[in-house]
Protein 1
Amino acid sequence: MEKELCQICKHRIAEHRFVRVVGGVETTYSICSHCKALMDNKYRELQEEAARKAVPPEMRVCSVCGSTLQSFSETGVLGCENCYHVFDDYLIEYIRGYHGAVTHVGMDATAVPPDVEALFKELADLIAKEEYEKAQALNDKIKRLMGGGDDRL
Ligand SMILES: [Zn+2]
Ligand SMILES: [Zn+2]
């Protein structure tokens, strides 16, 4: 019988065969030790992520700067890059709804430059892709565009 190659790297001999259920879908893996270690790490990350998301955003506290959702809604400013990680699912919804909210309350819609809407979309995408560093930089840019001369920000 021929040796089976790892189905991930397609290079090393598969030494492990196991079934993993993710999102109700059963998949059989035949993989090498090297890829199994990588996969176990990723799997653990996903589990930690799921555990974190199970806590409602208003109960979360940033472990780096101590920001909470309440401090964010009071100031509109997040404390650090890690905050984006802690509140990402909430932020995506918040940002996606934000521009709509601005125009709906009948504030001067023309005060929002058209490219800010595109920037908000980009920001939500960056957070979804977990590019928090870029997200924070973009958020600062949006704040400057939106805030004009407001030096509170
Ligand atoms: Zn492999
Ligand atoms: Zn923080």
Protein 2
Amino acid sequence: MFRSNKSALANGVPGSEHSSDFAYVEPFSCYLDSACQTLRPQCVIDAEIEYYCEYNACGGRVKYKWGTMVDGKVQEARRLLLQLSGKREKEYCVAFTLNTTYGINLVLHQIKAGAFSRIVTSDIEHNSVMLPSMTWAKRQHAERLVLQRGDDGSVYYKPSELERSIVLINSMSNIDGRVPQNVKQLAEKTHAQGGILLLDAAQGFAHDAERLRDVDFDAAFGSGHKMYGPSIGFIVIKRSLLDRLDPFFIGGGTVTDVEQENYSLLRSGEEAHAVLEAGLQNWGGILGLGEAVRWLGTQQAAKEREHSLAEMLFAGLKKHSRVHLFNRAPAPIVSFHVDGIDAHRLALYLSEQNIMCRSGYFCCHSYLQHQLQLPPLLRVSLGLYNTQAHIEKFLDALKKILSAF
Ligand SMILES: Cc1ncc(COP(=O)(O)O)c(C=O)c1O
């Protein structure tokens, strides 16, 4: 019988309000890089280990007991992800992938040729949107339009620009946590013009899943590793969009029948997601992700704390005249640069004090480096495990560095 090693763990990170879910983290570590990947609560780690130790079987194929246990839990993970997105099984299904980047490529490049005449994206996108939108336009000999986003995240568009378009944007920026305030209206206008809306929700699922519930998106892409789960991706996709795919990335699991020269793909019903899941899946990862989504649903108090920590961080950074904040408003993701100290050097100084932040352009080179011509930035991104003590430690360390250089 597998047993969690919870009891053997250390006392937890600084700050008395810290939950025991992250008690394994060394007390002096200050992890501020959730936008890359979050820490995992103990229950997620336990769920994965439990799978490997207790019922390590393949899902979707076998009749023996371990396999049926896997099938039940995989089904539950799909249900929890639909629930998190506020979508109904009748209209949407959930497919598992490697990560957000893989999911975007998988769907975009399998859309039937000629179905859309343009791809529309925005300036503040991660490379995982920027690059597939470029390759799609190139391969389809179609137009690619890059729209501007306002300081409040709103997408500036003319309805005619949405005509027969694939609109592919993030639902939260990984630079400054900006969210597209007008995304609900954008979905309506896009559909009215015969287009579809694809959302890169890699950050949105972790920090702002509530917003997605009201949005009539055609597909939303997420990464488990950014929302307290294992390294795995998923797609919440409309069944009607599955019908508009011309799948060529196929193999075991995606078919109902195969003859010498022909095959029939799984396209509808309970197993419709399978057309996006070629080959054996990361079963342990899927079960861990299901546990992460369940855990997220119990974290209302931590979500409120994350909100107040974001305000505390923003206010603390604003006090320094040498700090140039990229954010216009507090958010769980904050970026800035400092007069006289290169961001990479700053990240190294912080690291010496066990403070872990990202430095650079965060895969948004097109916008930050080339369009705005900014120097590399330092990014602080919060998670539900962060405490007031972490923010105080970070602000205190920054103050000392600023006074020394
Ligand atoms: C907004 C956004 N989109 C996409 C990605 C890519 O995610 P992944 O590397 O999990 O595919 C990231 C990763 O940082 C991101 O922040």
